[in-house]
Design goal:
This is LysR family transcriptional regulator. 44% of the residues lie in helices and 25% in strands. It has 301 residues and is α/β, with parallel strands linked by helices. The protein folds into 3 domains: 3-81, Winged helix-like DNA-binding domain superfamily/Winged helix DNA-binding domain (Arc Repressor Mutant, subunit A), CATH 1.10.10; 88-162 and 266-297, 3-Layer(aba) Sandwich (D-Maltodextrin-Binding Protein, domain 2), CATH 3.40.190.10; 167-262, D-Maltodextrin-Binding Protein, domain 2.
Length: 301
Amino acid sequence: MNLRELESFNAFMTYGSVTKAAQAMNISQPMVSRLLNNFEKSVGFELFNRKRNQLTATSEAQQFHATVLRSLNAFREVETQARAIANDQLGAIRIAAQPIYVDTYLIDVVAKFKKAHPNVSISITDTGLEGMLDMISTRQCDLGIGITLDLQDPNVLVTPLAQSRAVCLMPVDHRLAGFETIDIDLLRGENFVELSIGSPLRTKIDYIFQIAGWPRKIAVEGRTIRTVSRLVERNVGIAVSDPFAGLLVDHSKVVARTLTPTIEWDVALFTATRELSAVEKSFLAFLRAELPRLRETGCVV
């Protein structure tokens, strides 16, 4: 049996005659008759009573029609899903990202992507860089969003999206708040709020201050930039931070100033060493489409 035979049987059972079945299928009556005869032979039992060139369904046909209808519906679902996948409207994306990008960049992109692709399911995990790389290497996630400070991992493909430069966060009434650009030597004697040791950004900041030749006075360490930003709002200290923190802070309490020397890194997409699926490529396009807005806010350059 084939699909066309299934469709002819369903049309006959639905409309009650060969003539109406032919009209519904937009084919000739002889073609419908041939399809029905072939289908009856293939199933191995009588589907029709024949009297004076007229067909009526047997009780076995009535029973069998429910099974045929389920099969046709299943096939139509296959067709629908195939079209949806081809048009990037169906699938699943598992994303791991560093917390600062989950809290800012990623949530805006996901919201816009879901409006255009409502049937694509998305899961988001916020994790540090090491955790994200491990999730990609072990296929626990499909895409990662993070920074590329001194990253070398042969199992991970890195696609740069934009470049960021560290800023100095400080209370609005800080003695240096009137400066547009701040040399790190002006920060001697300040209390610092820092990311925890082991963070890639913290490691880079430590290196810059080692070159400067003087130790910082660290008041508090926090795991996330959100925590660091909140502590700066409360006058606990200043912070050398990812510029995306500017999307989290209360600007009536905190200002962000450019630093010299600059501390730079790429914001990037991390994937396993494989070709992206169609729906993942579509998500990447949404990530890139968000970059102009982030440039306007100073998060990337």
